[in-house]
Amino acid sequence: MRFGKFEFEWFPKKYGWFPYIWPIYLVLPFFNIRGEHGIKLWIGCAMIVLFAVTYRQLYWVTGKVFNLWLALQMALILALCMFYSPYNFYLGFFTSNFIGWYTDHKKFHVAISCFAAVEVLSLLFGARDLVAGDLPFMMPFLVIMLVMPYGIRSMARRQQLEQELDRANEQIKELIKREERMRIARDLHDTLGHTLSLITLKSQLVEKLAAKDAERAQAEAREIQRTSRAALRQVRELVSDMRAITVAEALAEAGEILRAADIAFDVEGDPRLTGVSDLTQNIVSLCIKEAVTNIVKHSRATRCAVTIETAPAEVRLQIEDNGIGLSSRKVGSDGVSSLPGNSAAGNGLKGMAERLSLIDGTLTVGAGSLEGSDGSEAGSGRGTRLQITIPLIVKEAAKEGETA
């Protein structure tokens, strides 16, 4: 609710709609004082309105101010029971809820002791005005009021512990990431620092010898090539030593994500890819994750199938869905410049192609022919088929073998 520049809220948004339900029960105290007249009636109405104010304020305040508003609420219950109707005793359910919010053990027990005294006094002073037989009926409600704060406090404590645990887990994850970055930085410095310094010195020497001693300059250039290949090999070994996800693990995660999105998932072939390096498996796994993300977000598919074929010279992995489809094209390391539909999907394919180019792999995008799990087509198109082709012998590695 906005008044000019001032914005008014009845209750904090974090509590949702729950606080708006309880005020409905404030109709009962008005019903209980309907027989009063004159100034006593007006004072009773004012006390009920003030009780409603305490209810709202207790959602907003903390600390000593919270204690004061809670004490005022208890005093109003006692006054309404003593001077108007003992049936206002049921207003104690409001107070019982707020007592459960105390996290301090001492304050909680002081509050619940005062509350118990208020409720018992309310019944004692108003017992003469009760209808015969109502007092035994009201006792179970008194017990519920006194027990309820313990349950609310226990739930609040559990939620607090869960939040603290979540924060601790986030801190642990951040520390792990930071430690991993530091480890990678140390490894890069230790493994590549000397090699790159050598390449720099050699290239400066070649520049000086180019005009004076061409034969020696060529020899130094060949040495730079060998050193750069060694550096590339060191980088690949460093990446392989990092925690990498395998294709089998990526497909297992993909299955969980797709099934959660009500998309049937099938795998044909051996996902273990025996003999394929950790680096290659990690890159292919990232491509699988990207493809699955595109299927869930953009394809409108009801089925996805992965086919793995291993040949002597290459591995072919095909990811196909029965969604709205993309046009057929081969994607090189430069990615896709004009894909129909969502641009995010095009950017995803470009990233996949760039990753695959690191291991001399290719990505082919084609129209799919996959039907739904019930034999029907899901999208208005023919679906999409992504084929990832990975050579089992990377050309760069072959070159290193020739020069070794």
From TrEMBL:
Residues 180-244 form the Signal transduction histidine kinase subgroup 3 dimerisation and phosphoacceptor domain. SUPFAM superfamilies: ATPase domain of HSP90 chaperone/DNA topoisomerase II/histidine kinase. It comes from Paenibacillus phoenicis. This is histidine kinase. It catalyses: ATP + protein L-histidine = ADP + protein N-phospho-L-histidine. Residues 9-151 form the DesK/YvfT N-terminal domain. It is an enzyme of class 2 (transferase). Its EC number is 2.7.13.3.
